[in-house]
């Protein structure tokens, strides 16, 4: 019985590793594409999740800018706080 449990555990961990490798490969593939994000409105008074997203994008204060790799994850974060940031490609 313990063999079945370890086999299932190994399969689950392999599946998560494959998913992580695919995500990393997608990031490497689009490594040439950059997007510049600028914080143009203060996150004071916004939802805590939106403030956390702004920090996750690497934006600290008003008019600060960062260049990020253009991935679906970053695009999703930008879409979540679209009213606080300006985006240039």
Key descriptive features of the protein:
3-stranded antiparallel beta sheet, 89 residues, Ribosomal Protein L30, Chain: A, 17% strand, alpha+beta
- CATH top level class name of the largest domain: Alpha Beta
Low-confidence parts? none
Termini separation: 55 Å
The gyration radius over C-alpha positions equals 18 Å
CATH topology term of the largest domain: Ribosomal Protein L30, Chain: A
Helix-strand topology string: HEHEHE
Q: What would you call the shape?
A: elongated
- Strand line-up of the largest beta sheet: 2-1-3
Specify the CATH homologous superfamily of the largest domain. Answer: Ribosomal protein L30/L7
- Note the total helix count: 3
CATH architecture of the largest domain: 2-Layer Sandwich
Helix-strand makeup class: alpha+beta
Summary of the model, kept short:
By secondary structure, the chain is α+β, with helices and mostly antiparallel strands. The chain is built from 3 helices and 3 strands. It is elongated.
Task: Describe the model.
- The protein has 89 residues and is α+β, with helices and mostly antiparallel strands.
- It folds into two domains: 1-31; 34-88, Ribosomal Protein L30, Chain: A, CATH 3.30.1390.
- Helix content is 52%, strand content 17%.
- The protein is built from three helices and three strands, in the order αβαβαβ.
- A three-stranded antiparallel β-sheet has the order 2-1-3, with no helix packed on it.
- The longest helix has 28 residues, at 2-29.
- The radius of gyration is 18 Å and the shape is elongated.
- The mean pLDDT is 84.
